[in-house]
Amino acid sequence: MRDRRITPVLAHPHDRTRRRLLAGLGAATLLSACGRAAPLSLHGIDLSHRSGFGRDFRLLDPQGRARTLADFRGKIVLLFFGFTLCPDVCPTALTRAVQIRKLLGRDGERLQVIFITLDPERDTPKVLQAYTQAFDPNFLGLTADAQTIDATAKAFRVVYAKVPTGSTYTIDHSALSYVYDADGALRMALRHEQSAADCVHDIRQIL
User: Which PANTHER family match (predicted)?
Assistant: First the structure.
């Protein structure tokens, strides 16, 4: 019998590229199958896989009703901690939230902005409601007793402290905005210095 020489077939560069792409798709599928969200490409901070971080809250709206994340299923929730007498950081964050809703177009209706006070002593329900609705009637302010607010802030790793100023005080606090997807999973934190357009880029990845 005549010997047949087997010539090795060298992979074409495009074949190698195709295999890498297929491997990447396979990994993404595996992540999805295991219940893990694929990594996000963000201007902010990806919190998709931070376990035990900001899982929920139980706070009161201006009408005294208890609110949790379950009340907002189906919505994208943007959550910010602050206080109504804040001179710059809080109004800047809420003004940006107004711009984000506008830039999202029709999807802006799916964005629920929540403002959690760090100053329940002065931010009464009436004050909190007037403050948030001055930015947008759909924005919601939440409060509770000081102990509950402190526990909630710690759950989100929010750093804050009262700072005496003359006969009164102000509050120094961290300034991240937290974003949940429509299933109630915490997905990202928006940096305070991000533009509204960069925030929209990030949020659109979970719409």
Answer: ELECTRON TRANSPORT PROTIN SCO1/SENC FAMILY MEMBER (PTHR12151), LINALOOL DEHYDRATASE_ISOMERASE DOMAIN-CONTAINING PROTEIN (PTHR12151:SF25)
Query: Does residue 15 lie within any of the structural domains?
Result: no
Least-confidence region, from 20-34, 155-169, 175-189: 20-34
pLDDT at 12 over 90: no
- Residue 143 belongs to some domain of the structure: yes
pLDDT in tens, 23-82: 443 433 334 344 556 778 999 999 998 878 898 999 999 999 999 999 999 999 999 999
CATH number of the domain where residue 122 is located = 3.40.30.10
Overall pTM surpassing 0.70 (yes/no) = yes
- Identify the domain containing residue 91 by its residue range: 45-204
Phi then psi for residue 128, to 5 deg, are -65, -40
DSSP state letters, 81-113? EE-TT-SSHHHHHHHHHHHHHHHTGGGGGGEEE
Name the residue among 180, 200, 150 with its Cα closest to residue 54.
Answer: 180
Instruction: Take residue 13 and report the two structure tokens written for it.
Output: 């560069």
Question: Buried b / exposed e across 78-88, counting CB within 10 Å, b at 16+?
Answer: bbbbbbbebee
User: What's the structural domain count of the chain?
Assistant: 1
In a domain, 18, yes or no: no
Contacts of 181 (CB under 8 A, 6+ apart): 76, 187, 206
Whole-number average pLDDT of the chain: 86
In a domain, 14, yes or no: no
